[in-house]
Amino acid sequence: MDMEKVLVTGGCGYIGSVVAKRLAERGTEIAVFDNLERGHRCNLDPRFRLYEGDLRDAAAIADAMRAFKPSAVLHFAAYALVGESMADPLMYFENNVKGGVNLLSAMQSAGCDRLVFSSTCATYGVPPSLPIEEDTPQNPSNPYGRSKLMFEQMCTWLQEAKGFRPTFLRYFNAAGAALGMVEDHDPETHIIPNVLKVALGQAESVKIFGGDYPTPDGTCIRDYVHLEDLSSAHLLALEKEALGAYNLGTGKGVSVKEIVEACRRITGRPIPAEMLPRRPGDPPALYASGRKARETMGWNPVRSDIDTIVRDAWEAHKARPRGYEGK
Ligand code: UDP
Q1: Residue 322 has what pLDDT?
Q2: CA neighbours within 13 Å on the CB side: how many for 249?
Q3: What's 78's DSSP letter?
Q4: Sequential DSSP letters for 19-40
Q5: HSE on the CB side for 116, CA within 13 Å?
Q6: Which CATH topology does 5-174+226-248 take?
Q7: Bridge partners of 209?
Q8: CA of 191 to the centre of ligand 1 (A)
């Protein structure tokens, strides 16, 4: 199996940068395609060639594909915020779907038919039963999830028509830190970095979006997966040529209140919290067993218990309390 040259879209971002480095450690030649809008130049390993460009620019990705001639693409570059997608749906379809068409066309023209795609549990919407399995009906409740599902469907039709070889890694909540890099989005919307900002004294209190969900403590339940464990799934998908969809979840849901408690315990800081109304588009509970990924690829998430996630994130935030400061 050929895995020596991989193009990583979004390789300067929170997840893509870690996976790119872990793959390079195994001897793979990496190039990164990133527009640096939400990624950070300083996440780029100096050994990697950077094609600075935007997927919405068809010529930019076509040129990069033609020049680098990868044997596979890892596709991370996308907008990924539920709330933002509810406020501006077209922004999501433009980047994640139109940008996705441009990527697939460029791959087809360059004769590259292997893709590992960062998909999401948001493609399931509000699932009829839990844990979510790969064959649970996909019915997204926000434009973000819909845009990711549309990209999956385009790949499936290419598989049917052209022998394309896609893997869909449906992430549950990416969390934690690795390789000294920290989660730093602007604005930050994710729960763990927001709680840790309060621990660092950079915000007064955590805002909990909704305490009236049909869950044991009334707050939303998510399945938090450590970056290192997400990363190992990408490496396995390439190595084992695992095609199709895999839910990258741990089987254990954690509530927003439990996150706040874990952060208080690990940081030793009080972390005041206030209850706000629900955030539009948020399903009450999302978690998956991850059984298919374990059984088919041999995926074994070892750092995804909530204490390890928070501990690693806390160390990274203390080391870079102001994130990348725009770099
Ligand atoms: N959340 C919250 N306060 C915050 C950020 C998030 O209560 O400051 C909640 C959010 O409503 C959701 C959960 O935490 O129920 C996880 O949200 P996040 O944005 O981290 O990830 P998502 O599941 O939306 O991808």
Answers
A1: 73
A2: 26
A3: S
A4: HHHHHHTTT-EEEEEE-SSSS-
A5: 29
A6: Rossmann fold (3.40.50)
A7: 276
A8: 5
Query: What does the pLDDT look like over 25-51, one tens digit per residue?
Result: 999 999 999 999 999 998 899 999 999
Beta bridge partners of 206: 273
CB 265 within 8 A of CB 109: no
Give the closest residue (by CA) to ligand 1 atom 21: 190
Annotated active-site positions, please? 144
Nearest alpha carbon, ligand 1 atom 6: 191
Alpha carbons 81 and 282: distance in angstroms, whole number: 11
Q: How far apart are CA 322 and CA 10, in angstroms?
A: 22
Taking a C-beta distance cutoff of 8 angstroms, is the pair 14, 77 a contact?
no
- 130-186 pLDDT tens trace: 999 999 999 999 999 999 999 999 999 999 999 999 999 999 999 999 987 777 777
Q: Name residue 221's beta-bridge partners.
A: 255, 285
Give the angle subtended at the CA of 98 by the CAs of 134 and 57, to the nearest 5°.
135
| pLDDT range class, residue 3, cuts 50, 70, 90 | very low
Give tens-digit pLDDT for 111-121.
999 999 999 99
Report the separation in Å between the CA atom of 287 and the middle of ligand 1, taken as the mean of its atom positions: 14
What is the Cα–Cα distance from 82 to 104, expressed in whole angstroms? 24
Structure tokens at 244: 């199709």
Q: What angle do CA 282, 283, 289 make, to 5 degrees?
A: 130
DSSP3 helix / strand / coil % (the chain, rounded to 5): 40, 20, 40
Residue type, 314: W
